[in-house]
Design brief:
The structure is a homodimer of 391-residue chains. By secondary structure, the first copy, chain A, is α/β, with parallel strands linked by helices. The first copy, chain A, folds into 2 domains: 113 residues, 3-Layer(aba) Sandwich (Rossmann fold); 224 residues, Dihydrodipicolinate Reductase, domain 2 (2-Layer Sandwich). In chain A, 34% of the residues lie in helices and 24% in strands. In chain A, strands 7, 8, 9, 10, 11, 12 and 13 form a 7-stranded mixed sheet that branches. In chain A, strands 3-2-1-4-5-6 form a 6-stranded parallel sheet, with helices on both faces. Chain A is globular and about 65 Å long. In chain A, 53% of the residues are buried. β12 of chain A pairs antiparallel with β12 of chain B, so a sheet runs across the interface. Chains A, B: It is an enzyme of class 1 (oxidoreductase). Chains A, B: Belongs to the homoserine dehydrogenase family. Chains A, B: GO terms for molecular function: homoserine dehydrogenase activity; NADP binding. Chains A, B: It comes from Lentilactobacillus curieae.
Chain lengths: 391, 391
């Protein structure tokens, strides 16, 4: 099976190296072409800067897109599918925005569009979710979907250092990008949660302004110390629930009790959970990023195509409705100014330097926090566990 | 696809009920026959007490064996395979003893022999392990494989009650059997670890007297309280490692630091981990037993057959050698009598009511504990985490 890799960064190199090593069942795979940028020197005989050369090569069966970003990735994926090539991508941003288009163009051209590595890196999450869906309705998806933010929160807790210090350290270690906003502001989690919800609910949702997203940019070392003193650990989590004819979807800092699995996920690991009616709760944990785990997941998709193991067909026929206020939660809010008025309807209580608010519909909470941020741009909030985390 | 279920206990009933509900992709499955015991009243039209009636029914494609025990399950599985029926079983005891025979008879008759539900109940563990093996060598398998013992240890920790009290409670709740020895003495874990090692290393190992197995029968509420005071949690774990041309394998009480994932696995949940060279560490957590999770895993196997998703071929061609002393560990030993002499080679140190011993090869440790048990049949031991659990 002949493969073309578009982009030769961390993940592209990893895919190339694993295939070259030809262990186990990868012996039937061969990298025939690698697309590099215009004007970049071709250091390997497989390299080319011509996408047409790849599209028009009838020997190439599979195109692996690991360029990242929206364009030209979006166009390259469509062109490859239209040239009857299977496409595999790790690019969550482009999938979250265009999964419906990619799925229908793949179906029209009788080729596959797979993306295991886009959510949870090396964790077999998409595969596990699709498998659960063969039997069950999945009525909740929750998890730590972003390794960078988990690394930052874990280091803050372990070292007591400030957010900006730890972020700088993460950037030096290569765990965070120069522009870290996608990771710390929750957009990366939102992309991965959208992709998961697309599959779980058979509906196409894109990250947009209506979705409640709150990141960790404003968290302070004092917040972490206070939560720790109450036996709570804060994690940036993506959460989605389905109930009756509705579903919700939120990305927010979430307090977990010390004994919760999520509270104990270290470093840049991810954990993703699903709940189904007969299977109960399943949790998948592993490296949510990194060269070889992510490349491993790309190659798992290639092997599924080679072994004709079909993934779930996505048709987006569901008529579930998005309701940002489907679930309620208690929250803790920290602000330099008095914001109790804003939360007057939700039994605000001052505790130490924090305001506890109760039973707030999730969408409403995120809207009210936008009002708080207008007055205090450094304000922070986190959801509080239902089973009674005491602050 | 027509199915016969052998045995109509908890899991058999669960399989029947999920298929009857005909959700999602199970609509193509139909239960045609159910084998019940001789002289038992047939309460459903599908029921029969004749195995021959099932074997000779050419319309039956798949036989689900959920009788349990070795015979007649072993014979029924062989007979079904020889009658060209795919066989699915949840019966870890019979698989651990006869996987080589079942695999070769299945291959000879061009049918499948699948057993996802036998290890980890509803956790997609076999499937996840086989998938990892498509690319990686798997060089370690560790986990909490037994829900009953985990429930007991978790309850002892949470309530401070004695082993016998909690065991009685577990039996009343249906979490433990009238004869709990397979669960609390580690034999159930040994079966599941053998099955996992068979797949991971492509070698056939059976639970036998040479395998280091130590259960939790002797643990006291004072042990638990002492470990808790040191921020450690004890779990009954199965562990296997592969290094060079050798592998090991052990079932033993294992101290975990408070922040380890394993330390926080509650109730009757299981967690199973693998480590591979490119994927790193993957952990799978879920309900390791229970009617619907286990039945779900049985039906996943049926759907794999229906959708022609082939599992890994097992040929047992590996020439790895078992070495009980492949790895070393520190241990804590509790005995009413002075046993420091027995461990003279391993830097014995008395700490509170316990003896700490250091860098003991695992097989040697289990042999030495047999000597201890001859003098003090209530003695207890647990391995201590490498990263320095302080007792």
């Amino acid at each position: 099976m002949n493969i073309a890799i578009l982009g030769f960064g961390t993940v592209g190199t990893g895919v190339y190296e694993i295939i070259k090593k030809a262990s186990r069942q990868t012996t039937n795979l061969s990298v025939k072409k690698i697309l590099i940028r215009k004007n970049k020197k071709a250091e390997l005989p497989e390299m080319t800067d011509s996408i047409e050369e790849i599209l028009n090569d009838d020997d190439i069966d599979v195109v692996v897109e690991v360029i990242g970003g929206i364009e030209p990735a979006h166009q390259y994926i469509l062109d490859a599918l239209k040239h009857k090539k299977h496409v595999i991508t790790a690019n969550k941003a482009v999938i979250a925005r265009h999964m419906d288009e990619f799925s229908s163009v793949a179906a029209e051209n009788d080729v596959k569009f797979y993306f295991e590595s886009s959510v949870g890196g090396g964790i077999p999450w998409i595969q596990g979710l699709e498998r659960a869906l063969r039997i069950d309705d999945v009525d909740s998806i929750t998890g730590i979907f972003n390794g960078t933010s988990n690394f930052i929160l874990d280091q803050m807790k372990k070292t007591g250092r400030s957010f900006s210090d730890v972020l700088l350290n993460a950037q030096q270690l290569g765990y965070a990008e120069a522009d870290p906003s996608a990771d710390i502001d929750g957009l990366d989690v939102a992309n991965k949660l959208c992709i998961s919800a697309d599959i779980a609910y058979d509906i196409f949702v894109t990250p947009n302004d209506n979705l409640p997203i709150f990141g960790i940019r404003n968290i302070s070392e004092e917040d972490i110390a206070h939560f720790t003193s109450k036996n709570l650990t804060v994690k940036l989590m993506g959460k989605s629930h389905q109930l009756g004819n509705e579903f919700d979807y939120v990305v927010e800092p979430t307090l977990c009790k010390a004994e919760a699995i999520e509270a104990n996920v270290p470093d840049n690991y991810n954990v993703i959970s699903l709940h189904g009616n007969t299977i109960g709760t399943l949790k998948f944990m592993g490296q949510g990023a990194g060269q070889f785990p992510t490349a491993n997941a790309v190659i798992q998709d290639i092997l599924d195509i080679y072994q004709e193991k079909e993934h779930l067909r996505r048709e987006f026929h569901s008529n579930l409705k998005f309701n940002a206020n489907l679930t309620k939660s208690d929250y803790v809010v920290r602000s330099e100014i008095d914001v109790a008025d804003i939360f007057a309807d939700y039994q605000p209580e001052t505790r130490n330097d924090y305001l506890m608010v109760h039973d707030v519909p999730v969408g409403t909470m995120h809207n009210l926090m936008k009002d708080v941020l207008k007055k205090d741009e450094l304000a922070f909030m986190a959801s509080v566990p239902a089973e009674g985390g005491v602050l």
